[in-house]
Amino acid sequence: MVKFMKQIVYSDYNDLDLPLYVKKYLGNHNALANIRDLDDESYIIMSYPFDENSVQPICIKQSQNELTIYTHESIEIENLETLNFTDLVFTTLEHYESLIQKIHLESEAFQETMGNGITKMQVDQLILMKRHLILYQQAVTAIKEVVDYIQDHKPKQLWSQPSQCDTVNILIEMKQIDQNISMLSEIIDVILDVSNALYSNKLNIVMKRLAVITLVISIPTLVTSFYGMNVDLPFQNHSYALILIFIISLGLTSFALYIMQKRDYL
């Protein structure tokens, strides 16, 4: 297996001297991975994590005597000139692992504050984290398909017998990444479900208290409305009728509040 002998950094993929098919892939960020033989040369396209929100395609051209890697100017890969294809895959996976670890830490922070409730902004952040995990999982799965192809067809520029162990390690690493992503996705789903349950519970409590308040307020309204009718009622001709009405209303209201509090309605 040879080292990368040449790197070409570009700002516009249309300026590259590459087949149109390859340039279309470089311009499509949704194209996660691909391998194609064209004009006696092999082209491998993989998704390299540009940042936590997106990935950037990179292209490896395999010719008879060398490997050439095409990278966008926004991508920086350390010591690229010393890497072979296997090393490049490991480096790519390490970047995905660091992004996944960041999401793991963020999910732990959400778990610590979940008891106090989760705001709509935090729910949006959780949904965005879930989308990121799906993107990473799709990208890693696509790279795995490329590695499987190389392991099956064994192109001499990308595969050698000593590298077989590295290839197995790559597949193991990818499986672990996939398991971590699945675990984090389940954790985020649980957090979202619990947050929905907490929100519904709080909403039910608020609605119950509003109903109790409405009922309690209606008591003095009901009492005073009776005395506003043109019918004979006790104390209506008493000199302290107004005060007595207030006392009766206050007593009934206090009794209703006591009953509601005893039954844990407040």
UniProtKB/TrEMBL annotation:
Q: Which UniProt keywords apply?
A: Membrane, Transmembrane, Transmembrane helix
Gene Ontology CC, one term: membrane
Q: Which InterPro entries match?
A: CorA-like, CorA_cytoplasmic_dom, CorA_TM1_TM2, MgTranspt_CorA/ZnTranspt_ZntB
Keyword match Transmembrane helix: yes
Species of origin: Erysipelothrix larvae
Q: What is this protein called?
A: Magnesium transporter
Instruction: Give the transmembrane region(s).
Output: 210-228, 240-260
State the membrane topology: Multi-pass membrane protein
Which family, according to UniProt?
A: Belongs to the CorA metal ion transporter (MIT) (TC 1.A.35) family.
Task: Give the location in the cell.
Answer: Membrane
Mind listing the GO molecular function terms for this protein?
A: metal ion transmembrane transporter activity
